[in-house]
Write a structure and sequence with these properties.
The protein is built from two helices and 21 strands. It is mainly beta and about 375 residues long. The strands form four sheets. A twelve-stranded antiparallel barrel has the order 4-6-7-9-10-13-14-16-17-19-20-21. The chain has a three-stranded antiparallel β-sheet with strand order 1-2-3, with no helix packed on it. The radius of gyration is 23 Å and the shape is elongated. It starts with a helix and ends with a strand.
Length: about 375
Amino acid sequence: MAKILRLSLLRAGAAAAVIAGSVHLAGAQQSGHGTHNHQTTGHMHEASGDGTMNHGHGMAMDSHGHPLPIGVMGARSPMKGRFMLGARVMEMKMDELLRGSDGISPEEAATSVANPFAPPATVRMVPTEMTTRMAMVSAMYGVTDDFGVMAMVPYVEKEMTMVTFSGMSGSTRLGENSADSSGLGDVKVGGTYTLYRSGGHRIIAVGAVSLPTGSIEETGRMLMANGMYMTRRLPYGMQLGSGTVDFLPGLTYTGASGKLSWGAQYKAVLRMQSENSEDYRLGNIHHVTGWLGYRVTDWFQATGRLVARTEDVVHGQDPNISGAAIGANPDNYGSERIGGLLGFNITPGNGLRVGAEAGLPLYERVNGTRLGASWSARLGVTYMF
């Protein structure tokens, strides 16, 4: 069911891209030309809170024709009485084992990474690959011209492959096995408010709350060092939610001039409870991003973005997550990461936008020993009406 949902969303996104191009070409033929006039031409332009201009039909564009990168969220505020609906799919792959910022082999980990639940003295189960996929639907409504309310509902899939080493010590591989988890993630609700609006410049504040709707009791069948398979609670990184109520503040600046646009955003995930029902809490996250966009044509924009992100270790410990696995140690979570992303937006009009981004890590230092990011990609469709 989960794979069917993911494939359906990916196909829907691809279809939307084709539809977007078709709508643009049809509009160009009807008007006799393939361009819009982005200057004020005697009719009222309605400015939305992220610098978008709604030319009487809900089109989510700024006064210079620049939408935001698809990966930048919480920086929109539709006009009073308007809705914005969105659907996004994201995938992130992790396949390099890091100790700090240095890559190490699974064999090195099995002979040198301490097991806090000893015996055995060192870890015997080492992750080699992890994939996270998320499909999310969102809705926003403009209560006033400056204030909007929003909700986001994610569906999450996680898959992890581990190699198990035989016995109480040494680097002899016993075998590999995979575990997976899937289901509803943490639902988020909140609002955005336009603090400043002048010409092509906007400053938007966001405040949201993440509700603990995602499971933190996912289990999987694991190959143990003695050769037996056992069903155990999966590591913290394989759970679907945080288990705590989290506060999500953010602040975004956007600007544009001619064909060029730019912006910067800070956002955070702050855990509002000392622990969840399983006696731990995930680390706080701080995230800063900056981007440039260039309007190649009237309906196509290219974007480039840098992202810096920090995440703290897991605090406390789930009594049901233990054993000689790297993922069972709360100190092996969190990292400092800098990444770069390239993307595009297609905006044919009529309130529709299709966007995509893909990126690679430029630098990463992890806490303890854990898998580092290798690449990420996202595809999304939004519609304002």
